[in-house]
């Protein structure tokens, strides 16, 4: 009871902070407040709007290599058409605001759910989204993150709902498939994975039947370089100052390095991703201890792993991490507090490297390189800490804060099937 009362005491502060920060975001995307650097909203008004016209014509963007998304991505691109009284970009921003509000409401509701729950998650979401600046509302990643948050919160008691929503998210942008990595073995895992498989298969068939080119994106990644904000790109930012004769150019919708040694660094990145997958499989085989927060903690660690080893780290990717961190901290037993704070810090630095000082990043000068090292270092640190804590809690059975007497034994979860 004290936990619930405490949560409601903080509610006015939380709601006020959310309203004020979102008002500031809207002022930014509607250009009442101008953020220095490139116009981040142009992707919505130009690229998304162009895809919208193609999709509305009954086909996927068959000849556009910048379309690199699963077939479900057509849904958020088409969604602004449901608000015909607004222009496309304005409707998109409003829909992002509504998804943001839905996540905030879910986290508030979950955080006030009694013992074992916390309002920390709602605070992380309230702070994390505006730290990214207008990019948060100028990409459809916030909508995907909303689906992922709903999946993890539902999965605490309903593995089938977790599986179905994870499949929906994966058809929007692949990474929500990682939400399933930490589902407790046995009946919950079978329920979640079977629901995910059935949902993914059914929706894929529907989307493929609805319009030609639904799977064209599979062929649009073959010749990618190294996106200039990724960890691997740091090699080339430094190499530019010592005579490297490659080039930086707009490629597949992002600014990438192309030229000598890029294929090698790409292969290393893919190899590291394969090692990350191997580590997750080993963790899953060896873990013996599942708590109420294991699913979200493991998902957070998994998405961190695949983010830092990717050839591409676009600014909006940190939204995924903010959303997953928020879900983790909604559960008091979660050990993800320190990596969540590192992700928030990385989000703030991301705003500086894009869009504020993106010109410096493109120039590979001291400021741009310093911001990239700081941001990517924070993400790498968060990954190491999160993975260490997931391994310690699941494999070594280390005690979890907020769960007295739990060290060295498998703790019960809430009953998965009501």
In words, what does this structure look like?
The protein contains 15 helices and three strands. By secondary structure, it is an all-alpha fold. Strands 1-3-2 form a three-stranded antiparallel sheet. A hairpin with a 2-residue loop joins strand 2 (247-251) and strand 3 (254-258). Helix 6 packs parallel to helix 12 (317-330). The chain is globular and about 55 Å long. The two termini are 22 Å apart. The model is unreliable at 1-6 and 402-418 (pLDDT under 50).
Defining key terms:
single chain; 418 residues; mainly alpha; three-stranded antiparallel β-sheet; 61% helix; globular; disordered N terminus; disordered C terminus
Report a brief summary of the structure.
The protein is 61% helix and 3% strand.
> Which spans of ≥5 residues are poorly predicted at pLDDT below 50?
1-6, 402-418
Tally of helical runs: 15
Mean pLDDT: 91
Q: Please give the largest β-sheet.
A: 3 strands, antiparallel
Strand content: under 5%
Q: Helical content, roughly?
A: 55-70%
Kindly state the number of beta strands.
Answer: 3
- Name the structural class: mainly alpha
Placed side by side, the strands forming the largest sheet appear as 1-3-2
Order of helices and strands: HHHHHHHHEHEEHHHHHH
Q: What is the rounded Rg?
A: 21 Å
What does the oligomeric state look like here? single chain
What general form does the structure show? globular
User: Terminal Cα separation, in Å?
Assistant: 22 Å
Write the layout of secondary structure elements.
Blueprint: H1 2-29, H2 42-56, H3 74-78, H4 88-111, H5 120-131, H6 141-155, H7 159-173, H8 187-210, E1 226-227, H9 233-239, E2 247-251, E3 254-258, H10 262-286, H11 294-308, H12 317-330, H13 337-356, H14 358-363, H15 366-394
Antiparallel strand pairs: 1-3, 2-3
